[in-house]
């Protein structure tokens, strides 16, 4: 079973954290010919990452990949056994995908010295999306219940992305006033099961940001 993509992408990272939570069972690779190659598009015409390939089965879209990984890999179940618990985990993942990521990405596109009204509007929307998570999060250090679920793997990438974006716009700690998210953030980053994968993700993100900064410097010098 192979997962194609870069850990600098929070969507790929989400799947890799799911693999870690299951105790392994899939390999991570960058697709050699690129995600717009004929061979890649033959497996997924969407042409995006991540993509999970398991034998003759090709699965795009991180949320679907995570549920497939949970269903097929050995290791602890990452969905609760009861319907209410399953709904809560899916809700947290859904809130992340349709509210948090779009709002944070909109803020990401705005320069720190951009139009103040645009920054304020984007910041307000992004902070509200984090409040949605805070409302539905559990107490005690996990997104739901007392063990890792798919919600933990999903939300981590969005908060990781949001923190530096808000810092760039003057909000030093987005977890202030959100005690459930704050407790979860501290606990999840210290989780022994996830630590190796989290370290790999941090390295990939740092390398990606370094490359982007170098590219921006070269572009500025050429202008």
The termini sit apart by 45 Å
Low-confidence stretches: none
Largest sheet: 4 strands, mixed
**Which of globular, elongated, flat, extended, rod-shaped describes the shape?**
globular
SSE ordering: EHEHEEHHHHHH
Question: Mind explaining what this structure looks like?
Answer:
Helix 1 packs antiparallel against helix 6 (150-168), helix 1 packs antiparallel against helix 8 (195-222) and helix 4 (83-108) runs parallel beside helix 6 (150-168). The longest helix has 28 residues, at 195-222. This protein folds into two domains: 2-72, 3-Layer(aba) Sandwich (Glutaredoxin), CATH 3.40.30; 83-191, Glutathione S-transferase Yfyf (Class Pi), Chain A, domain 2. The chain has a four-stranded mixed beta sheet with strand order 2-1-3-4, with helices on one face. The protein has helices spanning 10-22, 38-43, 62-72, 83-108, 116-136, 150-168, 179-189, 195-222, and strands at 2-4, 27-29, 51-54, 57-60. It has eight helices and four strands; from the N terminus they run E-H-E-H-E-E-H-H-H-H-H-H.
Summarize the structure.
The protein has 223 residues and is of the alpha+beta class. It has helices at residues 10-22, 38-43, 62-72, 83-108, 116-136, 150-168, 179-189, 195-222, and strands at residues 2-4, 27-29, 51-54, 57-60. The chain has 8 helices and 4 strands; from the N terminus they run E-H-E-H-E-E-H-H-H-H-H-H.
């Amino acid at each position: 079973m192979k997962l194609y993509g870069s850990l600098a992408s929070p969507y790929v990272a989400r799947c890799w954290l799911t693999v870690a939570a299951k105790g392994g069972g899939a390999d991570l690779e960058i697709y050699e010919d690129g995600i717009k190659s004929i061979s890649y598009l033959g497996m997924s015409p969407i042409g995006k990452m991540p993509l999970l390939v398991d034998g003759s089965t090709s699965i795009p879209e991180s949320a679907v990949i995570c549920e497939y990984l949970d269903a097929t890999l050995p290791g602890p179940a990452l969905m609760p056994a009861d319907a209410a618990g399953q709904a809560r985990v899916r809700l947290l993942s859904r809130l992340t995908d349709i509210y948090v990521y779009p709002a944070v990405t909109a803020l990401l596109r705005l320069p720190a010295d951009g139009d103040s009204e645009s920054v304020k509007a984007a910041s307000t929307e992004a902070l509200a999306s984090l409040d949605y998570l805070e409302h539905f999060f559990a107490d005690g250090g996990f997104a739901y219940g007392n063990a890792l679920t798919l919600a933990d793997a999903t939300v981590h990438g969005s908060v990781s992305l949001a923190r530096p974006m808000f810092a760039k716009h003057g909000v030093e700690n987005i977890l202030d006033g959100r005690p459930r998210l704050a407790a979860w953030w501290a606990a999840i980053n210290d989780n022994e099961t996830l630590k190796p994968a989290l370290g790999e993700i941090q390295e990939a993100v740092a390398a990606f940001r370094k490359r982007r900064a170098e590219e921006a410097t070269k572009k500025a010098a050429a202008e």
